[in-house]
Amino acid sequence: WISLRAFNYSKDPPFEQRDWGTFDVLLDVEGVKVKRLVIQPGASLSLQLHRKRDEHWFVVSGSGVVLIGDTSVYLGSGDSVTIPRYAVHTVRSSSDEELVLIEIQTGECQEGDIVRLEGK
Q: In terms of Cα–Cα distance, which of 1, 25, 22 is closest to 14?
């Protein structure tokens, strides 16, 4: 058994606490990064886009509203959404429980690729 945490291709932090919650990197190899995001009730990620990667979000638990461009999508447990590079997006936890997402990034997967348009 080899821990997936042993792979840190991007050299980005494997865990961070943010004002909206936390993320934990589960896999970080060339071309792919997988994160577990825990978004606190009522909190949201910054409005952002990425130039070098696509993202696929899978909802493990909780519920939220994802904004991609001008489209809002309600997501609950078991739902997923794809965010192509250059798409302006955010997500907000919309219930009184944490929103837990698995985020799969493909492309050049570096934290420095976040272009924040609003928020932290």
A: 25
For residue 46, give the DSSP letter: P
pLDDT tens sequence across 65-92 = 999 999 999 999 999 999 999 999 999 9
The Cα 49–Cα 65 span in angstroms is 17
Whole-number pLDDT of residue 1: 43
Q: Which residue has the higher pLDDT, 77 or 5?
A: 77
Handedness of CA 20, 24, 27, 30 (dihedral sign): positive
β-strands 114-118, 47-50 pairing: antiparallel
* Cβ–Cβ < 8 Å for 110, 10: yes
pTM comes to 0.91
Whole-angstrom Cα distance, residue 113 to residue 116? 9
Alpha carbon distance 103, 72 (integer Å): 18
Closest CA to 41 of 89, 90, 91, 94: 94
